[in-house]
Design brief:
globular; binds guanine; 29 helices; alpha/beta
Length: 723
């Protein structure tokens, strides 16, 4: 971004062939940092499009561009069309000239006016043609508004009529990008119908419509349901816009569920009656002596001085305050996506308003209920409604969980009970439960009482127990983790108070965890490792066995086998065979760096950061040769349990991409012709050609649906080509 003398240079148009394309540059589950390519610059998402009323410009659009760096705004084509003094110059000079704004301009169609005032007199084709004629970047078709108080049949009519109007609107828009709004009121099945119907047509963006009254009445739980029902049925390669949503308090939760664009007149509307937006709700200028946040607009003025201002002047100042606070929360969300903490931000913000907390709790408990541990449900009342909805939302929760990038770097900051419900924690646990296999037939030992790194505390003891029949686990606040995976994220990286690790073992809970790991009917021996004084002797005494010699080689093989099974989906007997008689290169801190097999070939390297594992080219060739399933020829997604042990997911690329990928270049969207149904973001994958020949090793950045639909951006980050 370039500023000179307080002005910002005009945007550069995107490449012609990219116009209308949307790509993802970074993701955190369903939250994404995206780029929408337009004639008036590349719009970086998620972002807020301030609403400009062309008749009353409280903050000048030029100031939005120059001072605030706002890349896009939204105005109303119906208002322009209706007023001759706006219509004429818009038609002759274009909308950018009319409102003096060089960035991306989206226009709405008059649907909202019809909701507020009754019918509008403009035609379906006419309003799209008008938007095209005035040169907007993103136009909106005339959809039919669905209110939350409408009956099922009224809403269905609105959905059907909107879909009916879509084709002619798309035809009229020609090469102008078009918004295809999703309606459906409060009925999830109608939201799903609208989303899949509209998604099948050539729209560029999908706004979620009919949500203004839902937000006004603070029906945030319904908003969460609407979002899930719409998003999981929309094609992921299209940005999703939240019509009329500009309260910063809602951004984190909606972005975590995949919202890309927001628009709002709230910054002005609230300012007009002396209200200030903050990420924790709304405050009134009449009630405060101190600013809730210091932003440039109010840096040199006190609330009482603002109260004394004339109404118009006060409105402008409070509008700026609201806009600055809103932009600040949006940047916070964008950074959180980069940091992988968007869910945590949504979690924190959920405490700001009772209705938002209710929505969040519904989201993390009701859809996920059947996969959760009853012991961690204590915060939620098992109300009638929860019971009635049981099972209905599971696939939507899966849609959120399956998009999580794991394993990931960085600490898992403890946030109370909510920590258990984080979708990426759930993804890590599902992967563990689906793929880990017990190899020891004996009793179970559960170490507890201390935080990671456990190897530093009891590594020596573990080595002395590895030749026994004991299956060993560590009790962590996020569940049991097998010893072989003791350095894996998130279990090994939980940041929280000491008491978290001091919890006494709960045998019912341990048994449930073991059952999920496929370990049944074993005696459980818990060992407190908070005090390491004389620990070895105490343990051998408790187990009734003689102290053993250290056998770190067996333990190392175990660790690699566990990682291969859980993280690369390798069959347990194949993994054991691959690791037989291997040797290990160790780090200075005595962690495995490389595994060399019995023929002296370096096959695998554990990643020390998050506890993952990387394949070398010979390692990838070995896993490739073990494959029994046919070459995938489509884009399905299936439960991990159904394909456990079938090897790392394969990604098939077309002939054009083959030479580049073989050289180690990334796989770009648009060149993938199929993938295995067990692919997930963050997983190690093998990239193959249509005959199944190995081309490269990579890490998927995408879900299978994303591989199927996106045409721009990185699909798979390639680690090594296999020439
Ligand atoms: N603005 C706020 N809600 C809506 C909606 O549902 N449709 C359109 N076109 N504009 C809106």
């Amino acid at each position: 971004m370039k500023w000179q003398d307080g002005r910002r240079a005009d945007p550069k148009p995107c490449r012609e062939k990219d116009e209308g394309r949307f790509e993802i540059s970074s993701r955190d589950g369903q939250a994404r940092l995206g780029k929408l390519h337009t004639k008036h610059g590349i719009l970086e998402t998620p972002c807020l499009l301030p609403v400009i009323n062309p008749n009353i410009r409280t903050i000048e659009p030029r100031e939005m561009w120059d001072k605030y760096g706002i890349q896009a705004l939204i105005t109303n084509s119906y208002v322009i069309w209706k007023h001759e003094h706006l219509k004429e110059p818009a038609l002759s000079d274009g909308v950018h000239e009319l409102i003096d704004y060089p960035g991306v301009i989206m226009t709405d169609s008059g649907t909202f006016q019809s909701y507020v005032y009754g019918d509008v007199e403009v035609g379906v084709e006419e309003i799209v043609q008008f938007q095209k004629d005035i040169g907007v970047d993103i136009a909106t078709m005339l959809d039919v508004f669905s209110r939350p108080d409408m009956t099922h049949s009224q809403v269905e009519k609105a959905v059907d009529e909107t879909i009916k109007r879509a084709s002619i609107s798309i035809k009229t828009a020609g090469n102008v990008m078009l918004n295809g709004p999703i309606q459906g009121g409060l009925f999830p099945e109608l939201r799903a119908k609208s989303a899949s119907g509209m998604s099948a047509l050539e729209f560029t963006v999908h706004p979620i419509g009919g949500i203004v009254p839902v937000m006004e009445q603070q029906m945030y739980r319904d908003l969460a349901k609407i979002m899930l029902a719409c998003k999981s049925n929309l094609s992921p390669d299209r940005p999703v816009h939240m019509f009329g949503c500009g309260h910063p308090m809602l951004f984190p939760m909606l972005i975590a569920m995949g919202a890309d664009l927001f628009d709002s007149a709230a910054y002005v509307l609230f300012a007009r009656d002396g209200r200030m937006l903050t990420p924790w709700g709304t405050e009134r200028i009449s009630d405060i002596e101190e600013w809730p946040i210091i932003v440039p607009a109010v840096a040199n003025i006190t609330p009482s001085e603002v109260r004394a201002m004339k109404k118009q002047e006060r409105t402008v100042l409070l509008s700026k305050f609201n806009l600055e606070v809103t932009l600040q929360e949006m940047s916070r969300c964008r950074q959180a996506i980069r940091d992988g903490t968007i869910w945590r931000l949504a979690e924190r913000r959920s405490h700001e308003h009772p209705a938002l907390r209710e929505a969040f709790l519904w989201l993390v408990t009701n859809p996920a209920r059947s996969s959760m541990d009853p012991l961690i449900l204590d915060e939620i009342s098992a109300s009638k409604e929860f019971g009635e909805e049981l099972g209905k939302w599971e696939e939507h929760w899966d849609w959120l969980v399956n998009a999580q990038f794991t394993p990931r770097n960085g600490g898992e900051a403890w946030g109370g009970t909510d920590t258990h419900h984080r979708p990426h924690v759930e993804m890590a646990r599902r992967r563990l439960f689906a793929r880990w296999r017990s190899r020891k037939p004996g009793d179970v030992i559960v170490f507890h009482g201390a935080s990671a790194p456990w190897r530093e505390r009891v590594g020596g003891l573990i080595d002395r127990l590895f030749n026994s029949d004991y299956e060993m686990f560590v009790q962590t606040p996020l569940g049991l983790v097998p010893w072989g995976l003791e350095d894996l994220n998130p279990w090994a990286h939980i940041e929280g108070p000491d008491w978290l690790w001091k919890r006494k073992p709960n045998y019912a809970w341990i048994q449930r965890e073991l059952a999920r790991l496929g370990v049944y009917d074993r005696k459980i021996i818990s060992i407190d490792i908070s005090d390491t004084e004389e620990l070895h002797n105490r343990v051998f005494e408790k187990l009734g066995m003689e102290p053993q010699e250290r056998d770190s080689e067996t333990r190392k093989q175990y660790q690699i086998v566990d990682k291969l099974c859980v993280l690369c989906n390798v069959d347990i007997s194949d993994a054991i065979e691959l690791c037989k008689d291997s040797t290990f290169i160790m780090s200075r801190t005595d962690r495995i760096r490389n595994m060399i097999n019995s023929d002296g070939v370096h096959l695998f390297s554990p990643r020390l950061g998050e506890g993952g594992i990387s394949l070398t080219v010979p390692g990838a060739r070995k896993l490739h040769s073990l494959r029994k399933a046919p070459v995938p020829d489509g884009f399905n997604s299936a439960d991990l349990r159904l394909h456990a042990g079938e090897g790392p997911a394969w990604v098939v690329v077309d002939n054009d991409a083959e030479p580049f990928v073989k050289e180690g270049r990334n796989v770009m969207h648009g060149f993938v012709t199929g993938c295995d149904s067990w692919i997930r973001p963050g997983e190690t994958v093998l990239i193959v050609n249509s005959a199944g020949g190995l081309l490269a090793i990579g890490r998927s950045q995408s879900t299978s649906k994303e591989l199927q639909t996106f045409t721009k951006g990185i699909a798979i980050k390639v680690r090594d080509g296999c020439p």
